[in-house]
What does this fold into?
Amino acid sequence: MRKECGLSIQERVLDFWRGIYSIVIPSACCIVYLIFSVLIYSGKLNWSYFWEGENFTDALGTLVTFISIAISFFGVLIPILISGKTSSETIKFFFSVVDKKYFLGRIKVMMISGVMAVVLLALLYFSDIYSTEANIVIMTAMIWLFFYFVAASYRIISLLLMMFLVEKKMGYKGQKEDGSNV
It folds into this structure.
């Protein structure tokens, strides 16, 4: 493979995807939802049972629970990471190489998107009093925020897992198992 600036084309494409997937995936889900909404609203599809179904509120409750558990997980994990900053070699290494402002900003955005998704989910409990257009707008925003939250959570979890997997390959002094430095 041709290499430029130390990265292969495959690595550059992967880096580009990592930069945009948290926007592309939620946007694609919203486009699919909007297409279905237009078909339903125009009468070409009859999905009234979706909004009027007895399990709609159960589905909303499940999504609220999922987001709440994920936010709680990060709410517990962050203080653990910060308190281990001086005791664990892996966490010391992580905090020495990570852009702290960017990492903190990504966590804040992820948490805010989760809370906003929960607020919109709560609004959907009252979907029977809104107009169809308002329901479509609220649902589209909720879908985008939910999938953004999932993608942002995945990004942070994968970063943390990568950090802990590096710890397995490193000795206690920042060396790999074969004795070479990181």
